[in-house]
Amino acid sequence: MDRTEFGSFLRARREALRPEDVGLTPGPRRRALGLRREEVAQLAAMSVDYYARLEQGRGPQPSPSMLTVIARVLRLTLDERDHLYRLAGHAPPDRLSGTTHVVPGLQRVLDRINDTPAFILSDLGETLSQNTCAESLFGDPTTRTGRDRYAAHRWFTHPETEQVVYPEGDRARQSRALVAQLRIARGRRGPRSEAAGLIRSLQRSSPEFARIWALQEVARRFEDHETLIHPELGAITFDCQALFTEDQSQTLVVLTVAPRSADAAKLELLGAFADIGSEVGGRGHSEPVSVLLR
Predict the structure, then answer these.
(1) Residue ranges of domains in the chain, CATH in brackets
(2) In angstroms, what is the C-alpha Rg of the chain?
(3) 0.90 exceeded by the pTM?
(4) pLDDT confidence bin for 27, thresholds 50/70/90
């Protein structure tokens, strides 16, 4: 690890950002050039002391997962992210096999959405970033590990906890939607990719998945309307808008409700949960991809 260059690079990228670039509101008496260290630490869910030591060239070697978080918070491009990895003494992730690096343009849009659920998904159905309102609805994505990071894996291997978010009559459609989306990811990433490994695993563990996979269905679209069941607020009907990157490897999904409706009142309550940082009902859903695909 080149600690001196690593710290200098972090500092330069931090100072190049403004609070509004990351969805923060600048205070009236702001003297700091760019973001403050404590703001970066807060966004990255790390201690201020830890981040300060990294910038000062005296911190421990960050893990690849920590570098992913830092790259997202500092809105790094892929080239900048790869440079960050090399300075930290790690090999950059393989771009061809998919990446969890959030496209900065999508993240900037997400930063400005505060009053309704919104999240960014990979083509494998992994939640890469989400706002606090989405977290109140779906849970904390950091609780998922291994292939449980992927919506399709959880949907078919843990149906008793994952499928309850949908009305019973809509679950068969959702099963087919997730498989059709996964087929596109498999075609895009190739036979030796994580997508292919996920499919082989599901074919062994889920007869339902194997049956639907044999249908050879392919689709990449989102429902215009979705009804989701919250454990305390009940059914909420959302309108769904999806914004894809040019290569369609990542998607920003925004859920809205009709104004002055009963669903709007429920969304206000959901926003209150977000304000106090609560996980309502202990649902623990961490990957919102298991909703909305068709």
Answers:
(1) 3-87 (1.10.260.40), 104-290 (3.30.450.180)
(2) 20
(3) no
(4) low
